[in-house]
Amino acid sequence: WRLWQQENKKQKTKNDRQYSILKGRSICPHCKHILQAKDLIPVLSWVLLRGKCRYCKRPISVQYPLIEASTAALFILSYTFWPAFQDLHFETVDIIGFVAWLGILTGLIALAVYDIRWMILPNKIIFPLYVLAAGSILIQSILTANYDLIINAIAGAMVGGGIFYVLFQISGGRWIGGGDVKLGFLLGVTLGDPILSFLMLFIASLLGSIFSIPMILKTSLGSKSKIAFGPFLIASTVITYLWGEKIIDLYNNLLML
After folding, report:
1. Distance set, CA 249 to CA 191, 235, 252 (Å)
2. CA dist 23 → 18, 108, 241 (Å)
3. pTM for the whole structure
4. Residue 13 above 80 pLDDT?
5. pLDDT of 123-138, one tens digit each?
6. Which residues contact 132 (CB under 8 A, 6 or more apart)?
7. Contact 229, 176 (CB under 8 A)
8. How far apart are CA 39 and CA 132, in angstroms?
9. How far is residue 57 CA from its own chain's centroid?
10. Closest by CA position to 70, among listed 214, 194, 231
């Protein structure tokens, strides 16, 4: 919300600093009152305040506790199903990869919400995640002396974003947005493997179809309607990152490969 305010204010004023993520403080969207620590306890503050601002008594969107709870759940799932942690043996390289994933995951959640609300994937979130994902791959490759990680990450990016780039160029941006192209490259680097990138695109397309086909049949969507595809890409990335190898193994076993 604060980033949206920064990007869409027609006139810059001295008060715009309050919307800064780095320099500003959390505020009520209605009365602009600066929120105190007791107002910012995830989920609990919203429950204790009965979904209303402590200062102006206007409603606080249920989006806040839902996203807070979802983020916590995804963090727990990530730890529970992180492959390297299954035997409770924690190597430095594994911890670095896990911490980087949690940072990327937090940014992806923000992108998903932003895309749902405003159908935009802002560069101010995507580009820092590029640095985090690429930096994690670079550090892990140096620590393990396995530079194939870098090659695989580049190949993953070419699959994740390259296919979208071709579609974007052919359609002139009608079939897929430029933000999805940048997100595809990011997710490909994050997954670090071209096969996982293919799987991510397949699952995202499947999720998008499951969501959109019933709406089309109910005529609530027309041929010119737009759907935010970013959330489906992000959801499929979480699935692929945590369970992708198992899904591929299951597929191979079914085909007896």
Report:
1. 17, 20, 5
2. 7, 22, 33
3. 0.92
4. no
5. 999 999 999 999 999 9
6. 100, 103, 104, 107
7. yes
8. 30
9. 32
10. 231
